[in-house]
Write a structure and sequence with these properties.
Keywords: Magnesium, Metal-binding, Molybdenum, Molybdenum cofactor biosynthesis, Transferase. Catalyzes the insertion of molybdate into adenylated molybdopterin with the concomitant release of AMP. Belongs to the MoeA family. It comes from Halomonas llamarensis. The chain is α/β, with parallel strands linked by helices. It has three domains: 177 residues, Molybdenum Cofactor Biosythetic Enzyme, Chain A; 53 residues, Molybdopterin biosynthesis moea protein, domain 2; 82 residues, Molybdopterin biosynthesis moea protein, domain 3 (Molybdopterin biosynthesis moeA protein, domain 3), CATH 2.170.190.11. The chain is 20% helix and 27% strand. It is built from six helices and 23 strands. The strands form seven sheets. A six-stranded mixed β-sheet has the order 8-5-7-6-10-9, with no helix packed on it. The protein has a six-stranded mixed β-sheet with strand order 17-14-18-22-21-19, sandwiched between helices. The protein has a three-stranded mixed β-sheet with strand order 1-23-20, with no helix packed on it. Strand 21 and strand 22 form a beta hairpin. Helix 1 crosses helix 6, helix 3 packs parallel to helix 6 and helix 4 packs across helix 5. The longest helix has 19 residues. The N terminus is likely disordered.
């Protein structure tokens, strides 16, 4: 997205101030659990994890070739006295000889270089002749080169992806301590909304926001409490918000947060908790709301109110709600990526708001 900024003089909250307040409002879930590594993808580490091994555990060959002493290379060539596959024990290299070695195999004691097989010529007597120049230590992965026992492998707050899980597995870890999943109550409001797949009559709108947000929450490794569509009714909204407060860690609601006569979500939110801020100086997404359900922002459940417009809802989620979700998961919210590029178009931003445009980066 690209940001076209007009001057922000309205009482609406500046976008960057709003984002900072979202990050500050996050309170990580407190409970943790031990899970099998195979079930840990997307989970967040409770504590720092330390290396249990040197990696590599031994000096080993980075490729298929021949291990030898660099100062013993001679015109007559060197006989092959050893064959060392991966998984073999560490052997000693006899003087004035070399070892046929394979990728990952332990380098024989005494050898100080591995010559790639592409740079070797065998004569009729099967003696090895070297082509080219090599430095001592070439093509040898040294013990502890990647990590040493006791090094920090992953820091607390890391979200485990495939690479992180592979790293933990390489150190023999079958289980890991993670924070429990964040449980998010998802609510859509609006008398006009119906479920996708239902028969539509004029005036009704398929609820695309909830489908989108549920997918986004699941992509973020949240457990979703889908409370469906709630009618524009103070009584029904109060019942739904109360259930969300009692059963979830965070509430995400779309619609009903503006100031129209049928926008009841905000008054109900104020009755059951409070509003931290309402309205951000962005387009789309101006009605974005942060509040809480409970006695105070510190003791209550965070409440995110997104606009009913699907594009505005997506913008509010991606740029404002997602950092809060990450913080509640115990993750460090990622910084916004910002870099200057030349615009291939001209556009006047709206007075008093930052316009967030979908663009294509060429």
């Amino acid at each position: 997205m690209s940001c076209c900024a007009g001057s922000i003089s309205s009482p609406l909250l500046d976008f960057f101030d709003a984002r900072e307040r979202m990050v500050a409002a996050a309170r990580p879930v407190s409970c943790n659990e031990k899970v099998e590594l195979s079930q840990a993808v997307g989970r967040v580490l409770v504590d720092d994890v330390f290396a249990t091994l040197d990696m590599p555990g031994i000096d080993n060959s980075a490729m298929d070739g021949y291990a030898l002493r660099l100062n013993e290379i001679c015109e007559d060539g060197l006989p092959v006295e050893l064959r060392v596959p991966a998984g073999a024990e560490v052997l000693s290299l006899p003087a004035m000889s070399c070892a046929r070695i394979f990728t990952g195999a332990p380098v024989p004691l005494g050898a100080d270089v591995v010559i790639p097989q592409e740079r070797v010529r065998l004569d009729a007597d099967e003696r090895v002749h070297i082509e080219g120049e090599f430095a001592k230590g070439a093509n040898i992965r040294r013990r502890g080169e990647d990590t040493c026992e006791g090094d920090i492998l992953l820091s607390a707050g890391t979200r485990l992806n495939a690479a992180a899980i592979a790293l933990l597995a390489s150190h023999g870890m079958g289980e890991v301590d993670v924070l429990r999943r964040l449980k998010v109550a998802l609510i859509s409001t609006g008398n006009e909304l119906i479920e996708p797949g239902a028969t539509r009559v004029p005036g009704q709108v398929y609820d695309s926001n909830r489908a989108m947000l549920k997918a986004l929450l699941m992509q973020s490794s949240c457990d979703v409490l889908d409370l469906g569509v709630t009618a524009d009714s103070v009584t029904e909204l109060q019942q739904t918000f109360t259930q969300a407060r009692d059963e979830a860690d965070l509430v995400v609601c779309t619609g009903g947060i503006s100031v129209g006569e049928e926008d009841h979500a905000r008054p109900v939110l104020e009755r059951l908790g409070g509003v931290s801020f309402h309205g951000v100086a962005i387009k789309p997404g101006k009605p974005f709301t942060l509040g809480y359900l409970g006695d105070s922002p510190e003791a209550g459940i965070p409440f995110v109110g997104l606009p009913c417009n699907p594009v505005a809802s997506l913008v509010g989620w991606q740029l404002l709600a997602l950092p809060l979700v990450h913080g509640c998961q115990g993750r460090i919210p990622a910084e916004l990526q910002q870099f200057p590029v030349a615009a291939g178009f001209s556009r006047q931003g709206p007075q008093g708001r930052r316009e967030l445009l979908r663009v294509v980066l060429d």
